[in-house]
Amino acid sequence: MKNLFLSLMILLCSSVVHAQLRIGELAPEIELMSKEDSMVKLSLFNGKVVLIDFWASWCGPCRAANPYIQKLYKKYKDSGFEVFAVSLDVNKPLWLKAIKRDKLTYMQVIDNSGWLSKVAEKYYIDALPTNFLLDKSGKIVAINIEGKELFDKVKELLQ
């Protein structure tokens, strides 16, 4: 019985580990509504270095990171860098207010299903903020990268 339990635990743990997106994999497609009420696909940015940033207006750490991401975007947007921000807000007016207050000029999309989001499920999002850095071919090159390391990696990928 002990061996059976141990075997089940190993199987369960290995399936959880295997169920995450990994560096080197292609990022799954995302298609969500923009703040301008039009559907936008992640694949629209093929050929660019892209930071997918999962966030929400009610998330303090997300809001604290927004100025830094905006600074990164402003510095590299003309060199082939994009930010694709995916909000898990359920309240669109609060989301729009946060975008305006934080002066965010990069692509914003919303999945107002919140934590029930199919996109969040596809990306195995269990905490905010969460980000994925993609190279020009759409492959994940970093997960939850921030600070100087993020700036340096974007610069490297753009060269």
Descriptive report:
This protein is α/β, with parallel strands linked by helices and 159 residues long. 39% of the residues lie in helices and 21% in strands. It is built from five helices and seven strands, in the order αβββαβαβαββα. A hairpin with a 4-residue loop joins strand 1 and strand 2.
Q: Helix and strand layout, with pairings?
A:
Layout: H1 2-18, E1 31-34, E2 39-41, E3 49-55, H2 60-76, E4 81-87, H3 92-102, E5 107-110, H4 118-122, E6 130-134, E7 140-143, H5 147-158
Parallel strand pairs: 3-4, 4-5
Antiparallel strand pairs: 1-2, 1-5, 3-6, 6-7
Structure keywords:
159 residues, alpha/beta, 5 helices
